[in-house]
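Possible regression after last week's pipeline update?

I re-ran a chain I had predicted before the update to compare outputs. Posting the input and the new output here so someone can diff against the archived version. Not blocking, just want to make sure nothing changed silently.
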Amino acid sequence: MSMQPAAEKQEDIMKLDFNKLQEERIPEFKGGTGETIARMHVDELGKIMYGKLPAGSTIGYHRHETNSEIIFILDGTAKCLYDDGEEHLVKGDCHYCPKGHSHSLINAGKDELVFFAVVPEQ
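New output (post-update):
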């Protein structure tokens, strides 16, 4: 009986290849404008998303009742509205929306906004 090393087995189970996940085009995501282009892994523990917002697109303002969200900007310029505030994000910045808070994501640039988001259920 031939067995793979443990590292190889874990990689098959734990590695997410976003290039192999189906791309979804979601119009007016969370009540936003334009479309969100996403490749997502979703299970009972949460959502992991590689996403893009074309110029002029937004993810609508929404509340995180049962989860939080972490958004890491991979490319482009974004604006987040949150609770009573606003912040500007660029490549390499990370936005955190804790459980019980609200936020939105806006492509604030002329080019596509590319981001990585994790939404763990709590």
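Follow-up from reviewer: compared with the archived run. The mean pLDDT is 91. Marking as no regression found.
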